[in-house]
Amino acid sequence: MQRDPNHPYVVTVEKVVDETPTVRTLIFSDPILSDVLPGQFAMVWIPGVNELPMSVMVSAESGKAAFTVRRHGPASTGLFNITSGQQIGVRGPYGNAFDLKDGKILLVGGGTGLVPLIRLLRFVKPSHNVIVLIGAKTKNEVFFESMIRGMLEKNIHEVIIVTDDGSYGEKGLVTDIVERLVREQHFDGVYTCGPEKMMYKTVKAAHSRGFFVQASLERMMKCGVGICGSCCMGGDLVCRDGTIFDGDHLLSNREFGSFYRNKAGIVEKY
Description:
Layout: E1 9-12, E2 15-20, E3 23-29, E4 41-46, E5 50-55, E6 64-70, H1 74-80, E7 87-94, E8 104-110, H2 114-121, E9 129-136, H3 145-151, E10 156-163, E11 170-171, H4 174-184, E12 189-193, H5 196-208, E13 213-216, E14 232-233, E15 236-237, H6 238-241, E16 244-246, H7 247-251, E17 259-261, E18 267-269
Parallel strand pairs: 8-9, 8-12, 9-10, 10-11, 12-13
Antiparallel strand pairs: 1-7, 2-3, 3-6, 4-5, 4-7, 13-16, 14-15, 17-18
Helix pairs in contact: 4-5
């Protein structure tokens, strides 16, 4: 099936799943987005509100795709409030994909940053040895744990939950566990998505041990095709050149983990 990624189309939300009090997954039929590569994204239009970039979530049903959204600003809240039977606009897919290495791999996800990592798990082979780190503030904000365990039940090495307050799993920051793991074990690939400060520490820790590492970045995206420049990070446009970048490239970019641009394009510190 062929489709121009730049031509918007309308889909009907068929099911809404509450993951946490502030996170929902919207499921719809879309044979193209259901098979996107891990790391690719779509631009999603919420009628009467705005358009925003969304990683494409895995659905258990063939031909179905999904978006997992956390209620935050006007656009994400608008998408969060969409109910079954309502329509949204979609264009894409856009972006590049993770490069999955053979052997032992570490996946580090924070919040809805788990979405592209779960899609990456679809490509894991029986020969892979996988450790998945799930970071959240509290027990109530942990989601997708059962899905991850189910996807890799036969060959997953370990799933580690980390909460800031220690209400579930290990207490502390997920990056503390990353630093311990990369110090004690060898990994053929490290993959991360979530808050940029978390990704910065993960990339730096893995890179310092000489491990291949990639991160999926999120920046202010208004067009998704490299025209508006809103997602500029140094010399990179995240929508056009990413959203997946490797450690060598990221650590050579002085803005990664330090600066971002707000909706007005003004540079601010993290």
